[in-house]
């Protein structure tokens, strides 16, 4: 059923985007801690 497949793909894209933004936030936090010392 193509519609279900499309939803799964969209969900995966959203999950991937959330993972990317989450790791970006983690990186920014680590860099921020280093600057603070």
Give the structure's gist in a few sentences.
The protein is 95% helix and 0% strand. By secondary structure, it is an all-alpha fold.
List keywords for this structure.
0% strand, mainly alpha, 1 helix, 37 residues
Would you spell out the secondary-structure blueprint of this structure?
Elements: H1 2-36
Structure, described:
The chain has one domain (1-37). The protein is built from one helix and no strands. The chain has one helix at 2-36. The longest helix has 35 residues, at 2-36. The protein is rod-shaped and about 55 Å long. The mean pLDDT is 89.
Helix content: over 70%
Number of domains: 1
Mean pLDDT: 89
By secondary-structure content and strand pairing, the structural class works out as mainly alpha
Largest sheet: none
Q: Ranges with pLDDT <50 over ≥5 residues?
A: none
What radius of gyration results from the CA coordinates? 16 Å
Number of helices: 1
Shape: rod-shaped
What's the order of the H and E elements? H
| Gap between N and C termini | 55 Å
Portion of residues in beta strands equals under 5%
């Amino acid at each position: 059923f193509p519609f279900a497949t499309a939803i799964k793909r969209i969900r995966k894209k959203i999950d991937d985007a959330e993972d990317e933004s989450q790791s970006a936030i983690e990186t920014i936090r680590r860099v921020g801690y280093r600057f603070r010392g």
